[in-house]
Amino acid sequence: METTEAREARGAEAQSLPAPPPSPAEAPAASQTPAAPRARPRLVFRTQLAHGSPTGKIEGFTNVRELYAKIAEAFGIAPTEILFCTLNSHKVDMQKLLGGQIGLEDFIFAHVRGETKEVEVTKTEDALGLTITDNGAGYAFIKRIKEGSIINRIEAVCVGDSIEAINDHSIVGCRHYEVAKMLRELPKSQPFTLRLVQPKRAFDMIGQRSRSSKYPMEAKVSSGRETLRLRSGGAATVEEVPSEFEEEASRRVDDLLESYMGIRDPELASTMVETSKKTVSVQEFARHLDSVLGEFAFPDEFVVEVWAAIGEAREACG
Hints:
CATH topology of the largest domain: Pdz3 Domain
Strand content: 15-25%
Number of domains: 2
Helix content: 25-40%
């Protein structure tokens, strides 16, 4: 029979043993704190001056003006020296023109001011044959010249030339649609003067260029699956590449911008397509366009054609 002293000694021994670890269900809440979300990696882009330079790296921009400022800082030039940028090609290639989106792997080439030239033009027809775009930072330039047009017969005028003045009236700071309107309103049979600034060119950009050039990135860089969307207002955002429908609809709207207004602007076309997704009728679409892009004062017949073109693109892409 166990004595009282033995029972008390066994009880004291039990109290001195360590408590068992708590079960997962009983573990304190602090130990189950979820891991902090992984930060998005820094977006760093490689860049060169199109006529030749070392490679620089830029980051931290949200719109085109800030992009130009970053490029200028990287190469020790003024932002106003930059006329426009192309992606993955140093050539004056309007198909590679930087618009509102940059692929996360794209290589940016900045085309800077070269020689200034003046040409005299006599407007013998209503249309000069020019398609105007702008760089989003104050310079309008020639994106396309129509075959057989008035301008096409003037050899000194080239695609990529920035239009600095019309009849000595500076248009620096004007948007492309404003410049196109000025040119349309010039009287017929009366000469006028264009002051143009051509992009600075390297020697190997004058003639044909082989693939063994010092720009190996031209044929190798791909855009990846995401793009950085630059916006005129608000922060830049990383988005998936446009869908087949968005690309086709934007192309059709850009064609209409050229035929109606004499401008090409993929970013503007993309914004119009994006606006159409929020509407169910052409009337609602027109109201939304007025609120978002009222400064363009699009005519009603143009808005109807844009709505129809977007609908056709949707049907074509299934």
